[in-house]
Amino acid sequence: MSVLLLMSGMLCACSSDDDGEWIVGEWTASHHSKNPQSYDTDDMWFFTFKADGTGSGPFGTRTFRYEIKGNHITLNLMNVDTYYGQTTFHYKIVSRSKNEMEWDETPNDYWDNSGLYLKFYRVTPMATE
Q: Which of 22, 24, 18, 51 is nearest to 10 (CA)?
């Protein structure tokens, strides 16, 4: 019985890391194209991720809903017809730590293989700090 309690405690300890709480806060992102010959920039974008699964950023109306599953994040734009021909953006989370993360956009009909690669830096401390 004590082994079961220990295992369930270990599962609970891991769940908060996997439920997306780590992303809540304000982030600055520089974005780079995978094809520097056609597009390359060091512009800074600002994103805010809220605990309720919504956020804001540089898209159209600047608001979106986000969902994290494993190492993938999906942004669904709210109150906008399209932004660069899209309303949903899919990214692979390449790496993440407490204060940095990197995303690689999943190829789609609009971006193909020259989608954005984003590198983020945390602006605000995590809520648990």
A: 18
Mean pLDDT, rounded, for 92-113: 82
| pLDDT single digits (tens) 15-35 | 445 568 999 999 998 877 665
Rounded Cα–Cα distance for residues 14 and 30 (Å): 30
Q: End-to-end distance of the chain based on CA atoms, in angstroms?
A: 34
CB atoms within 10 A of CB 56: 16
Identify any residues that bridge with 3 across adjacent strands, giving them in sequence order: none
What's the full length of the chain, in residues? 129
The two three-digit tokens of residue 24, written as one number: 């809540």
E strand spans, 3-129: 25-33, 44-49, 54-56, 63-69, 72-77, 88-96, 100-105, 116-122
Whole-prediction pTM: 0.72
